[in-house]
Amino acid sequence: xxxxxxxxxxxxxxxxxxxxxxxxxxxxxxxxxxxxxxxxxxxxxxxxxxxxxxxxxxxxxxxxxxxxxxxxxxxxxxxxxxxxxxxxxxxxxxxxxxxxxxxxxxxxxxxxxxxxxxxxxxxxxxxxxxxxxxxxxxxxxxxxxxxxxxxxxxxxxxxxxxxxxxxxxxxxxxxxxxxxxxxxxxxxxxxxxxxxxxxxxxxxxxxxxxxxxxxxxxxxxxxxxxxx
Length: 228
Known about the structure:
0% strand; globular
């Protein structure tokens, strides 16, 4: 049994602990990473770490994660809080009240030291994912995880922060981004998505050049289609 198989065989304990809403997101993430690792020929823990860095950055800019905290720390809080019955459901699905309690939660270091970092990352990513959807239905990011793994230099934490900020400002669904890069979007949607991507790039890159960025988008699209 490989490392990821061992992680997945025990992640059910995390899913059952953190509550229904975040547990569903955690389970979906765990089930996504394994097949993605096979497809990309990459180690699953490395893929998860890449996704965690991006989600952490988005969580910070969207005020879901404190600037000094990591996804791993947040995930450990979510797991230990869940063990005490502190879940999103215990706050009647009010994420803001749940977040305030998680922010105050004190981690037991003895419990944390033996926890697989992958469990912490899965719980932390799922927590931020739920928080983003609470902030705005336009901030769904779960189908962007393959892009973050396949083209991590392009879908960097800093660029994805800009995407999230602009998506919230103009009420654009981030989930549509994947459809653009993998070629599955309708032709009528393509120009709208491109307009969004160019707007987000202007926020991300002070040296933005329309023609150069258009070339970059074409290259990344080709790379994504080749591996996903």
